[in-house]
User: What shape does this take?
Amino acid sequence: MNELHPDLSRIVVSTDQIQSRVKELADQISADFVGGERLYIIGILKGAFIFLADLTRHLKVPHTVDFMALSSYGKTTTSGAVRILMDLREPIEGQHVIIVEDIVDTGHTLHYLNRVLKGRKPASLRSCVLVRKQRDNLSVPIDYLGFDIPDVWVVGYGLDFADQYRTLPYIAELKRE
Ligand code: 5GP
Assistant: This one.
């Protein structure tokens, strides 16, 4: 069911594409960590909550889920300034950590997170990102990537505009005004 919301111009990633790719990503993670220690999965709020819920339900390896919230820089501009609004509940020293992010745009958020979390001495640190915009961004390595998408403002599947559209099952481009 991909009926388009009237505020949106086109579907960028369909419900079916998301569902099958999320399962593939979970299978890759499960294969990479099979027989290993418990994973520590960090969802970045608010945008990653739906992706994280679907991803973790497909994981076949033991894992703990935790969340962080970071300041966003506004709706359509990028300053590069990132700040922690809500931190993890536990130390991650010695843990195998995977950051789960909804979208990489400029790359500042993931770059900042990598630096901060590496400083806490995890046993390993990887990232799993649903969509990355094709634009000039910091070349932050992504271990598990869902899709590369055009450089447009997208909503749905956790992504919002002014806290709307998060629960749409697809990712779509928002109409300008
Ligand atoms: P970055 O630090 O990579 O520039 O941006 C990361 C954050 O910007 C994302 O977690 C998200 O909150 C926001 N963001 C960037 N592009 C989009 C977009 O197209 N749609 C939505 N909803 N959020 C975006």
About this structure: The longest strand covers residues 124-133. The mean pLDDT is 92.
